Amino acid sequence: MKRDNINYLVVGSVVIAAMLLFLYVLYRLTGGVGENDLYFADYDNVGGLSEGTPVTYQGYRVGSVSTIAPLRQEGRTRYRVSMLVRDGWKIPADSVAQIYSEGLLAETVINIEEGASPEYLSPGSELAGRQGADIFEAINTVAGDASALINGSVRPLMENLDSRVSMLGQRIDTELPLILADIRQLIATLQEGADRIPRILNQATEDKVHRVVDNAEEISGNLRSLSEELLETRKNLDWLLSQTHHTIADNREDFRQSVATLRRSLEMVSVYLEGIMHNLESTSRNMNEFSREIRDNPGLLLGGKSPQDEGKTDE
Predict the structure, then answer these.
(1) CA–CA separation, 135 vs 117, rounded Å?
(2) What is the average pLDDT score of the chain?
(3) Ranges of each domain in the chain
(4) Measured CA angle at 75 (ends 74, 77), to 5 deg
(5) pTM of whole model > 0.70?
(6) How do beta strands 54-57 and 108-113 pair?
């Protein structure tokens, strides 16, 4: 009987210890009822929040969500979230309570971002609420954009690519045999040319090539000598042009007078040349007339009469 009492005492002690541990954990999770300050924040959407959701300050846990109550303001529904924050925790007046989630599998929390105001909120005050990014909505938006991209661009691209590949395959099936035939003909031609190379590259051809190279070297030497002579000739021409330039510069007035005299001479020649050309034209007509008379009557050269004198007679 005494042994059973001991067993009951041990079991009861373990149960009481477990209950105390459970109450302590619950106390720590809730932040300690009766030792917390109450703050409020309003949100348009409280997805992911519930009673007991952790409240952090710059990532450090300071409390939890107490209640969530809907409010009707300006024709739309908002939600007032009551937060129990550790007693005596200083919160600047311009701090912001943002709904925050680190990832898809992480829990949603309300993180209080510390402001820079020197004034602090008193318990029972309202924090500015900021809606956090909805990861699932962002994923749905990305999925919608990806679907639109696939349906609007990728699918037509794939269809176009498939048609191009099919067309290319048809062309390959049609033109590949012709290309292979041309390649075989080209290989045969190259083989024939390769067979001719040994007949061309014999000893006689090699000797001719050596002679051509020797002649080319000789020609190169001659060209070098010619280039040197041309350079010397150029120097002489430069000297001659320089002397001519000095001569012309020193006798500029004489050259000017010579040119003026030559111009006057040419003018006089042009004047006389007009008369000479007129006489040549008359002579040419007379020669034409003479030639015509001779052709008509060649005997005039042998028995022609002397021209009758039409001057004064003795009568």
Answers:
(1) 31
(2) 80
(3) 1-30, 35-133, 134-199, 202-268
(4) 95
(5) no
(6) parallel
* DSSP-assigned letter for residue 60: E
Give the amino acid at 189.
Answer: T
Among 11-25, 109-123, 174-188, 243-257, the least confident range: 243-257
315 confidence band (pLDDT: 50, 70, 90) = very low
What is the mean pLDDT of the segment spanning 299-307? 58
* Number of C-beta neighbours around residue 53 at 10 A: 20
Residues with Cβ < 8 Å from 255, sequence gap 6 or more?
248
Let me know: does 41 contact 28? Beta carbons within 8 Å.
no
Instruction: Tell which residue, 141, 87, 79, 137, has the closest CA to residue 110.
Output: 79
* Beta carbons of 40 and 81 less than 8 angstroms apart: yes
Q: What amino acid occupies position 90?
A: K
Report yes or no: 95 and 115 within 8 Å, Cβ to Cβ: yes
DSSP the chain: -HHHHHHHHHHHHHHHHHHHHHHHHHHHHHT-TTSEEEEEEEES--TT--TT-EEEETTEEEEEEEEEEEEEETTEEEEEEEEEEETT---BTT-EEEEEESSSSSPEEEEEE----SSBPPTT-EEEEEPPP-HHHHHHHHHHHHHHHIIIIIHHHHHHHHHHHHHHHHHHHHHHHHHHHHHHHHHHHHHHHHHHHHHHSSHHHHHHHHHHHHHHHHHHHHHHHHHHHHHHHHHHHHHHHHHHHHHHHHTHHHHHHHHHHHHHHHHHHHHHHHHHHHHHHHHHHHHHHHHHHHHH-TTHHHHPPPPPP-S----
- Which element (helix H / strand E) includes 64? strand 60-73
Q: Residue 314: its pLDDT value, please?
A: 47
Instruction: Find, among 45, 38, 99, the residue nearest to 66 by Cα.
Output: 38
Q: Write the single-letter amino acid at 39.
A: Y
pLDDT tens readout for residues 107-136: 889 999 999 999 999 998 999 988 876 565
